[in-house]
Amino acid sequence: MPGTAPDADPGDQPLVVVAGEALIDLIVRADGQIVPIAGGSPFNSVRAIARLGVPASWVGGLSTDRFGRMLEDGLARDGVGRGQVQRSDLPTTLALAELGADGSASYRFYTEATSAPAVLPGPLAGGVPTSARAFLTGSLGLVLEPMASTLEVVAVAVPADRIVMLDPNARPSITRDPDAWRARMARIMARADIVKASTEDLEFLRPGDPVDAVAAWVKAQGPAVVLVTDGSRPVRVLTGEAAELVAAPPVQVVDTVGAGDTFGGAFLACLVHEGVGPAGLADASAVLRAARFAVRASAFVCGRAGADPPTLAELGGWPEA
After folding, report:
1. Partner of 108 at 20 to 30 A CA spacing, among 100, 159, 196, 287?
2. Residues whose CB is less than 8 angstroms from the CB of residue 126 and which lie 6 or more positions away in sequence, other chains included
3. Are the CB atoms for 182 and 175 separated by under 8 Å?
């Protein structure tokens, strides 16, 4: 049943906690072939963090069905802590991803009475583990109920000496009440230290306003850092009163599935690795170093099929301070 208490995981001492949905992406190739791939934005982000060697755990709902076991096996292989997973007999949530000629993906979601939304507050009453230095949430995790309300409470209660990162990852097609979603984003932004948003996220957040103006509005809500991604174009990094552009390396794109999720995960992992906390986000050099590392990780994902984040060895190690 939804909300079943998770199995004990006494060895779970994460430095980063990621909360949100895990689902199966059914990738429709140009030849009509349908390939099931483990996915979901927070699921991809936590795997990216763990593959970089930063201890991480995931909070979300998993089914006991075959797809659910596939998702959990993927987390286990990457060494992701699962002590706060909530398991149920509901079927696994699905996303149909149709790839365009440029490798970009459009999504249709199948979420009613499925496992991802079935995240209840009871098992999360203790909040994030005391070992955690950062918390990341967003995407469908802040859309689908009861998960969305549960994770909002967890996010705003994270102690002030730990980083909270928000990735809206807007999904207009499945957001039934856009105004309520926007209000939720604003509430979490008031607590967030970092907001990572695509230009599409910003357009949905404040329709009709110029993207630069929306990014400035997000920054004014309280985050120390705002990261604006725009496909293959440079990432805009807003810190303090400054804005910098960080260009991605050239890459032969296979598809873009998981690229933004990997960017967010790698950015946060780099900060945590360097011991940067909320106060340290005032150091623009540390933020830009993490952003450059993250665009390399994101570009790497674009060069191979599906959401397949790189390891630290594949990226050649951490950037030098």
Report:
1. 196
2. none
3. no
pLDDT tens string 304-315? 887 899 999 999
Residue 139: closest CA among 95, 169, 184: 169
Per DSSP, the residues of 220-273 read HTS-SEEEEEETTEEEEEEETTEEEEEPPPP---S--TTHHHHHHHHHHHHHHH
Cβ atoms of residues 253 and 103 within 8 Å: yes
pLDDT at 2 > cutoff 60? no
Cα–Cα distance measured from residue 37 to residue 236, given in angstroms and rounded to the nearest whole number: 30
Helix (H) or strand (E) segment spanning residue 88: strand 86-88
Asked if 28 and 96 touch (Cβ cutoff 8 Å), the reply is yes
Q: What is the average pLDDT value for the chain, to the nearest integer?
A: 92
User: How far is the CA of 221 from the CAs of 6, 225, 281, in angstroms?
Assistant: 35, 11, 16
Residues with Cβ within 8 Å of 125's Cβ and at least 6 positions away in sequence, in order, are: none
**Is residue 177 within 8 Å of 149, Cβ to Cβ?**
no
Checking if the pLDDT of 6 tops 60, the result is: no
On the question of pLDDT at 100 being above 80, the answer is: no
Cα 256 to Cα 66, 78, 116, 181, 192, distances in angstroms = 26, 21, 23, 25, 26
Ranges of each domain in the chain: 42-58+121-302
Fold of 42-58+121-302: UDP-N-acetylmuramoyl-L-alanine:D-glutamate ligase (3.40.1190)
pTM of the predicted structure, to 2 decimals: 0.93
Tokens of 83: 């002590």
Distance CA 199, CA 233 (A): 11
